[in-house]
Amino acid sequence: MLRHPPLVHSPTACRGQGARRRSCASYAEAMRESELHVADVPQSAGTGAVPAPARIDELVAAAHARGIEDRTGTVADYIPVLAEADPESFGLCVADVDGGLHEIGDSRIRFSIQSISKAFVYALLCEEIGHAEVRETVGVDNTGLAFNSVVAIELNDGHPMNPMVNAGALATTALVPGATPEAQWDRIRDGLSRFAGRPLELDDDVYRSETATNQRNRAIAQLLESYGRIRRDPAGVVDVYTRQCSLLVDAHDLAIMGATLADGGVNPLTGEQVVSAAVCRDTLAVLAASGLYERSGEWLFEIGLPGKSGVAGGLVTVAPGKAGIAAYAPRLDAAGNSVRGQVATAYLSRALGLNIFASDSHYLRKDQP
Ligand code: GLN
Q: Whose alpha carbon is nearest atom 2 of ligand 1?
């Protein structure tokens, strides 16, 4: 018999109550206990297929042409060095799960990965310590607030809520195994490089620029420490987090990283299993809920795929079982998401038939020749 957790343990009831931390833990506990009675059912994936390579090339070119018309948005400048990016830069790349690459424009211009690192560090951590502890400490629910919100932490009684906002990302990085920040950093850089299929390097200018201006992230880390959500030196955690955000990638790297999440954790170029298929599923669910911050609902409504943005202008989107799509265009919307990246990805989601909510009538087609 399916046992529902008592209403008082619902996630909504968790919010705004004094005993929230205990309630949230009990809710997760109760859900795990009931497990919805599907633990014995093998997870199958409806992968479908993408069009032939020449058609993908055409559609990538058309998506790029569509995106380049949009000159709205502004380049991030709260990390001073990011303001130096060329606002006109625009690269696009689709990597399918067979390793086919379809790219156009500035797909080989390098930029700092920024918040996109959060998705991959989260996946690596779940792989290393299991999703249960990460879920309990960091959570999986959208805050509905800006990525660097302090208010969101206070409103939720010190719970970071999800790993895609800065609070949750700092709590995630704090959990990465390693006796010292240096050991944690080695692990993160190595893991993200395995996702990309090549050794990723730190952009020293971005790292220094952000280190000189990241008082807010330091405040967030200290606040989390006061709530017992970070159990290491918060300054060291912020330093490792700042380094992970300063790793250099291009759109082609991000597409491969996305394709790895699309294909059960196997990098399509190297053939290495970087994380398990179950970890990919969990990570993609978190991205669908929170990958574009407070615009995540709009994004899911329009594009219908899990994605993750970064303030340098990167955007990675995952079509499960099919492909990774990545864009680089530094002009951002008010939430910090690449404008041209969103336009081009929306085009490709439609044209390549990737929206996971797209519905078609089998009934009306069945009598057609
Ligand atoms: N390093 C940036 C920060 O912490 C990342 C933010 C982002 O890409 N949204 O502020």
A: 114
